Amino acid sequence: MKTRLTRWVMLGVLLISSLSMYAQFNIIPLPSSIKENGASFTLNGQTKIYYEKGLKQQAERLYAALSPATGFDFQISDQQKAAKNIIVLKIGKGGAPLAKTDALNKESYKLSVKNDVITIEGNSPAGVFYGTQTLLQMLPAEIYNKQLQRKTVWKIKGAEIADAPSYEWRGMMLDVARYFFGKHYVLKLIDMMAMYKMNVLHFHLTDDAGWRLEIKKYPKLTSVGAWRGEGAERTGGYYTQEDIKEIVAYATARNVDVIPEIEVPAHALASIAAYPDLCCTGEQYTVQTQHSISKEIYCVGKESTFDFLADVFKETFALFPSKYIHIGGDEAQYDRWKTCPHCQKRKKELGVQTEKEMQVYFNQRIQKMVKGYGKTIVGWDEIIEDGLKDKAVGMIWHDQKKAFKASEAGHYSVMALTGYCYFDVAESNIPGEVKAATWLQPISLEKAYQLNPMLEGLDPKYRPQILGAEATLWSDQFIHGTVLQEIAAINEDRSEKYFEYLTFPRMSALAEVCWTPHEKQAWPDFEKRIRTHYKRYDNAGYGYRVPLPKLTGNEKGANGFTIKLESDVQGAEIRYTTDGTRANVYSPVYTQAVTVPKLSDFSAITVVNRNQYSLPLYFPEKYDKFKKYGQLVAEWKPSSVKGKDFGTFEINATGKINENGEYVLSFWYTEGHSRLEIKSVELYKNGVKIAEDVHDGYTGSSQENNQYKFKVDAYETGAAFTIKAVVRGDVDNDSNGAVFIKKQ
């Protein structure tokens, strides 16, 4: 037993040691194998780039990446004439031995950095391209800058790297249907993805709130379906077919597969607004201006619906060479089908019992339709039902069991799980956090890194059917109001900055989850490497969320709490306060541990520059989130006020009522399951009732009418104020809450 334990300890030490070595390179995603060789290579004006036949595009892309910041006009050639100070791109048997499938082998590479020669050898042009992306990460962060960096020495540490991805699907979904992002931003996102070896752009082109793809046979799809609102409130846009060709060519050069999504049968209101006959009622609808899931869906009973979709797919496939087509398939409401004579006739002809079975029929028709083009359908996990005749890809977002069902039925899966991959959710619930989706809990950087596409409990034999993972950038928030809209007059690109804030650094974490062997993934090591990447984002012009200072200690001693911090951003400062106020960019610079009497006195932020800083690290008091309701005047538990009948709950408000005016008393529940019922509130001054508010209210797992108002006209200094609330609590004693008072 001792020998076995010693062996495990030694293995742990070796793993930590190897990860520390990897961290010296700070490459994300972490390569399969890195070995230092003691050499170094320095780029200069005489460095030459040589490439083998078929790799001219990769050589030109490398030149375009290296030249702006270095200022060097690198000579590129397919004829090698020098033996030193050269970068060589070649096709060979590059990559790590773990690459098993053709798709993974295709993307593998070897990178050798020696004193005089850098060699990038890939199994294909894609592998060579990924080798160049690793090379860029081995250079100083300024290499990503588009301006000349005169004082930088372009030195690269010598190493032998063999690398290959773990999963072939490493994706990001961009929702341009609910909010239209122009072509230039789509190209920028592709660059952001390529930097981290992400290779699938899932293009969410159609939804209830917009149709974004030009279809020449149906011009109203864009003249009507691409716009919403009237007059000055009219917003929208679409991609011409020439735009799409440019996007696809740009992506292909960076090994990114662009997969279009044409939603069926639901999320189709924009196209129905353009062509009303596509729906069951035939009525004229308008493109929605506020987010909701429309009950208007494509009519499954009309053959004209499938004729329309056949035409749309024909033009779509002429633009997108991907072997996949995403058909959505989620959140269909069947109300219209249930009352539509065409749909009910179809239901009877098919001999099915439910409308859900009719959606399976719909999917079958689409699958057969696109098969003639050599396409495989992809859909949200709702499409994984019995009846699909050919293999499909289920994008697992809310029902993990569908991955098991898909695998057993021979289908493929991509993990886009809500708890890890929905990047439209904020990273925290810290006050001041960006406006984002709230129907899910925050997804921190560490949480995103915890995703394992190979779900626990899934039979290992199904591993080849798990294609990878994908994060989603939904733009629902843009039609929940106008908070996120640009101000066109000053062209501030607020929407783009917002999406980048949500994307980085979480996309870097997802990239490693999808690329690096799972056994080599370690959060502490990733956390060290990501610290150096914020400077790369800055130089590349990418926005990101600045992480809070990292708390490494808050030990309690005789004089209070000693707080120790470190920065999670290389080169950034930490600034702090100790007086209970929130830190700002002008607060003192943190240089060593700080001792405060109480934790709530302390606050700190990470400061990259005067315009770029983190949310505050602070220690909230118990009722911090209720501060907007005023001062705490009492705490309640059902046990203290329980009983069959209502009783009186007395609250001392002396000192809290300190002048004439109108006051609001709020009863708030904080935890548990029990409820507090309130009948009335009376205010006494020196034992004499001076005001009351009578109405039924309660607070529990929800609250209703939980605020009571009264007016003070004859305040006297030194007077005693007492509040008597008539309340009743549940018998269970698993809840508690608090009462707050605020002057209006």
Automatic annotation (TrEMBL):
Keyword field: Glycosidase, Hydrolase
Similarity comment text for this entry: Belongs to the glycosyl hydrolase 20 family.
One Pfam family linked to the record: Glyco_hydro_20b
Extent of the signal sequence: none
Known EC number: 3.2.1.52
The keyword Magnesium belongs to this UniProt entry's keyword annotation: no
Keyword field contains Lyase: no
Residue ranges constituting the Glycoside hydrolase family 20 catalytic domain according to the UniProt record: 167-517
SUPFAM superfamilies: (Trans)glycosidases, beta-N-acetylhexosaminidase-like domain
Reactions catalysed: Hydrolysis of terminal non-reducing N-acetyl-D-hexosamine residues in N-acetyl-beta-D-hexosaminides
Protein name (record): beta-N-acetylhexosaminidase
Domain (Beta-hexosaminidase bacterial type N-terminal): residue spans on this chain: 26-164
GH29D-like beta-sandwich domain location: 561-611
InterPro entries, per the entry: Beta_hexosaminidase_sua/sub, GH, GH29D-like_dom, Glyco_hydro_20_cat, Hex-like_dom2, HEX_bac_N
Broadest EC class assigned to this enzyme: hydrolase
